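Illustration: Tetratricopeptide repeat protein.
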Amino acid sequence: MSTFFSLAIVVSAGAQDVTYQDILDNPDDLELNYLYAQQQVIKGDLEQAAAALERVLLLQPNWDNARLFYALVLYRLDDMAGAKRELTLLSDRPLSASQSREVNKYLALASAKSKSTRLTGRIAAGFRVDSNPDLTTSSTVDLDGNPLDTDARVDGAFAAGSMLRLESDLPGGTGSYGFVQLNTNLNEQFSVSEADYITGRIRAGASLFHDDLQFTPYGVTQVLALDGQIYRTDYGGGGRVKYTVNPQVSVFAGGEGVYQNYEAISTDSVGSARDGWLAKATGGVSLRPTERNRITARVTGYFKDARNDSYSYDAVEIAASSVFLLGQGQYVLASASYRWQDYDQPDPNYSPTVTREDELFKARLAYGIPLDVMLEKFQLPSSEVTSNVNFQVGVNYLNQDSNIPNFVADSVSADIMLIKRFAN
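Result:
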């Protein structure tokens, strides 16, 4: 939310806090109330921020910047009717080009969210370069001392993804809704074709609300194709429970079970030996220390029961992610995960006696900026085509360790993406 968070930044890091007593002593001081609203947004108290901005607008109804700030606070409070009212008033005002873009953007978003049936989505496309896209081992010999191919190939790729989500309100007035969501991802390597993949995932279910509790049961199916061949099909279902402790803290737990059906293909001839159920259970917490930062941490257990026990495993993953909003729609995304995976029996393809154990560490750092803002920085014109488009760059690190030398590998990659979001 570009303007919202830039407006919410307190004027200077050393600015003295404005207390509620200061507001009571000076209720007609516009600048004091505006600064108080900024501070309350930073602290996560949006209700107090909205009240302060209401006082400002009663005294100075033509302060467009304050009204835009108020509209976005209402949007953040999920008061779509109020946000639309304030944004509609602003649409007839002589605004700057950047303010007009924000008004049009959030008026469309608020209108979409207030509909009983909503369609939202995003499309992303860009390029990636990877030091080791097919995770060629870094070990020189296997368990028996036989030499291994360690010739990792640096390669570029075209990458794309999309998300399409349809929601429809359920009767009862509790905010519950049904949904269908489609996600796709594509990775097309320039040279290393065995690392090509495309995935499609459809999830359908409902989010049911009772006070601060949200329960989301769903069914799911997914297809994974490698190098142009269908490799795996999943189908099953799951559920997620989320409890909002307060506006800054929520906790969640969930589980999912899918039956995985594998096919023998040119890059993996194992096929149906991998078939079987994969169950997972997860739990975690989401924190919002300020309105500019959200942190999520989770622990997930995986339990695979394959037809051949050489491919059955248990795994535990610890993951954390955070988003930092920098103002003007700029953001930084950071994530890291560690996964330990233990197989049930030795795989005779690698050893008749040693049971495989893997450790996988991943980390990602990405920076994004609205394309309109970036064009303005270079004094280039923007247009309707560039609205709601983010330019994003990211770097990734992956390290896989294993007691089977064939699976010891690491890679470093970087990507550049354009991400278009829409709502209707």
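Reading the tokens back as a structure: The chain has a mean pLDDT of 89.
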